[in-house]
Amino acid sequence: MAKVKALHSFTHNGESHSRNSTWTASAKDAEALSRAGLVRIIDGGEAKSPPAAPGKATSTAKKPATKKRPATKPAEPKPGGLIA
Question: Which three-class secondary structure string do you get for 19-77?
């Protein structure tokens, strides 16, 4: 069991938790709520801040964009075609 402190008011499993309220939750629930940014896990009076949002650790090589080619216009209009 882990002791947690609410960072925001929210409802979880039918229980309403107001901001800054503390309670004990299972380790699994505490971790999930912490990842969602709703609570801070408190162990022995020492608060653990929620982990930072993961950034792009690996860069993926992208294909270069294809160059756009200008549309080709016919040299002369087709017979019977309208001319603008």
Answer: CCCEEEECHHHHHHHHHCCCEEEEECCEEECCCCCCCCCCCCCCCCCCCCCCCCCCCCC
pLDDT digits (tens, 9 = 90+) for 51-72: 555 665 555 667 777 777 777 7
Distances (CA, A) of 81 to 3, 43, 76, 78: 79, 81, 10, 5
Give the 3-state secondary structure of residue 5: strand
* pTM of the predicted model as reported, rounded to 2 decimal places: 0.50
CA distance linking residue 82 with residue 84, whole number of Å = 6
Tokens, residue 42: 């408190």
